[in-house]
Predict the 3D structure of the following.
Amino acid sequence: MTPYVENDQKIDTKLDAKVPPGPLAGKWDQYRFDLKLVNPANKKKFDIIVVGTGLAGASAAATLAELGYHVKNFCIQDSPRRAHSIAAQGGINAAKNYSNDGDSIWRLFYDTIKGGDFRAREANVYRLAQISNHIIDHCVAQGIPFARDYGGFLDNRSFGGAQVSRTFYAKGQTGQQLLLGAYSALMRQVASGMVKMFPRREMMELVVVDGRARGIVTRNLITGEIETYDGHAVVLATGGYGNVFNLSTNAMSSNVTASFRAYKKGAYFANPCFTQIHPTCIPVHGTFQSKLTLMSESLRNDGRVWVPKKPGDKRRAADIPESERDYYLENKYPSFGNLVPRDVASRNAKEQCDKGKGVGETGLAVYLDFEDAINRYGEDVVAGKYGNLFEMYEKITGENPYKTPMMIYPAVHYAMGGLWVDYNLMSTIDGLFVLGEANFSDHGANRLGASALMQGLADGYFIIPYTIGGYLAETTFSEVHAQNSDEFKKGVEAVNNRINRLLSVNGNRTVADFHRKLGLILWDHCGMSRNEEDLLKAKSMVNALKHEFWKDVYIPGIGKDLNQSLENAGRVADFLEFAELMITDALARKESCGCHFNTAFQTEENEARRDDENFCHVAAWEYAGEEKDPVFHKEPLEFENVKLSQRSYK
Amino acid sequence: MTTKTINLTLKVWRQNRGEKKGKLKTYFAKNISGDMSFLEMIDVVNEDLTKNREEPIAFDHDCREGICGMCGAVINGRAHGHEKETTLCQLHMRHFSDGDTIVIEPWRSRAFPIIKDLIVDRSALDRIIQSGGYISVNTGGAPDANAIPIAREVAETAFNAAACIGCGACVAACPNASAMLFVSAKISHLALLPQGRIEAAKRAKAMVRQMDQLGFGNCSNETECEAECPKGISIINIARLNREFLKAELC
Ligand SMILES: Cc1cc2nc3c(=O)[nH]c(=O)nc-3n(C[C@H](O)[C@H](O)[C@H](O)COP(=O)(O)OP(=O)(O)OC[C@H]3O[C@@H](n4cnc5c(N)ncnc54)[C@H](O)[C@@H]3O)c2cc1C
Ligand code: SF4
Ligand code: FES
């Protein structure tokens, strides 16, 4: 088996990142000036399809409509306000330096690049840090009720991977408040007639005409009707693929389908093996568990992580004296302590549990203890900061974290990988833009806390409105109408065939059963630590499971109806194929970096050992056909402004 | 964490798409762990139904952590069940006893037509927001975020109102099927903040008018909405709405 084809020799014209020339700090300003503009009177002649209503999609749809474009906006849920972004808890970063603690655009940029273990594109990350401040300004103007201090000014908290306090928050519901802000802007545009909203629709196919993205095929989730929509550009903001692991902190409908359909139409998939495993989640309790609940990382500000020093110590937390507790993060990383980046914290939790020092019934948990914080500041102060998180914990576990330490364990949380995009956020298909978690752009091999909300809103409010204009202004469009275009007809046919194929398997096993099996394979072999042997094993296991799925799955009901089993089946079918791509990518990256920890590549202190000589690149995969290995392309990463160094949080 | 399991009898509303009427059907949920959420319990029942080649119960859900507002059903006559300030996805089975019979029905309201089984159409809530539930600001050009200080208590009161998840339980719980709590939460959130003050009167008038037009009932201070709201939205917000509305009528 050839895992991938190297094409170093050829110049990869499709992978031109289009990073503008000039000094880092001035690139975006200069570029915005150089971009062609669409004449205001012409904007209304353009139809833009935006798939997704999370932070990225809703902010993009609203802003494009404000500019005068006609927007069609789609989401799976019954209302755009329910997109997965709503669940984000901890906060959103910005380089305001309101805390006067040494923050700056440069520092936010540097922390993000370093946190991502030097596997992200400098120019994109710098732009993100620049835009971060405008996001906060805009959100306050929208009426987002951020936390404030007694003087009435905005309050900040610290998050993992940073030594400054730059995270803006609204209790533990920051994502909710930001999304409702974007949603309200969107509703305003719906009222004005500039946005047409299509909820309860699932994008099933991308339509490409003459090499350009010109529309989508959707399934109406109420009637089962297959529908078509045309436009001059398609913007995907469909979120991350963490649910490939079955159990994750993502919402139940989070999927890879939209991205994967685009991949099959020619959009390259970048770094699919980069998935973040978040260190502070409520541990798994049983087979029928449907999802894992995140406990915001902000808890690590005041909570102290520990396990018993002695393996197999089954005493209650309260009965273990101070001297027999191992505060392993504080001991191992004195300068960052409990605030090390997520990948480091997760890996260390696993390491402790592997040594038999895990706590709780399953031994797959570590303590996150607030006793010191409560003693120091009082219960009221702690409740003020984390009250709703503590309540949520108690609701789920039935235990009171003010009295006994929380138990936490890592869980799949975020996809750094995603569709490859250039500086314009355009994929390798002309006219297909990808925003938010669905793209691969800014977080390298590990995302820092509170940076996804920032990225989603930067993409939607402040980047796409400019770059899509450049594309529309420079392109000559042919007339395309969904009703009488062959490409649309073929798209509908493909969707119908697939649905019929799924329904006609008529086997004996449920979709959920396959999803659980897939999740376990990936968690065990392509999770927090990886090695070649396991990955190869997993690849053939996933392939076998995929074949079983198409032989033995059973989906009740019919296609032309509200049929949630069918919805899930389509998503799981794509996850099964996508999992192989993830594993292929993990196999090809013969180094460790950030979340991708290959046990063959580690330092003496068990930290990830990068290989900058051979792997300082983005791996972008091109679909090559059914049962064929995808074609490897690489975008070399050049660091002109930061020095690559071994990440150290000691 | 609990290890003991319970057995339950469920009476679940089943209604096909396009049918005017549905009916309660009986199912058994066996070996349910107390650590499961209510929705995970339905997952188990659905998995069994599927294995027996019956159609599973259709129900809305997504985040499963009490924040998206997608889930919701009337459990033994109570919206989201009997636990205070809890969405259905966060209601855990440890609050039920072995042998219990549980009746599960969809939200019932003229403004929320049933689509299938437990799924209803709540798009009327979006239409209310479209009528004015926003601050009219375009992207770009906002002043520095700290330009206007806002007293901490004010920001917190606004936050508490803004915490509404748009689930519609207040409507389902109200004998008049009024959406007053939902509407007042948005009006309060925005009217409390200096940024939202400017349009407050216009907003109140437009949103209340829209609510009336969409077939929601009037508020007669039954306070059942507050009791069932999973996010603890207070009826003080309704008083605030009334003040704003009055101001709007006067000017
Ligand atoms: C529990 C939790 C807490 C988090 N906390 C934080 C935090 O504190 N700070 C932070 O920065 N980040 C946080 N994150 C990460 C962050 O929330 C997400 O990365 C971000 O919200 C993703 O936004 P998005 O707009 O890209 O996609 P999403 O919000 O996932 O939205 C996806 C949209 O696409 C639609 N969609 C998907 N597939 C299809 C399809 N096939 N057809 C049609 N529509 C489709 C969906 O309906 C939805 O509208 C958290 C994540 C989780 C899970
Ligand atoms: S006010 Fe409460 S019950 Fe009504 S929609 Fe909002 S959260 Fe749900
Ligand atoms: S599923 Fe999101 S609130 Fe219950």
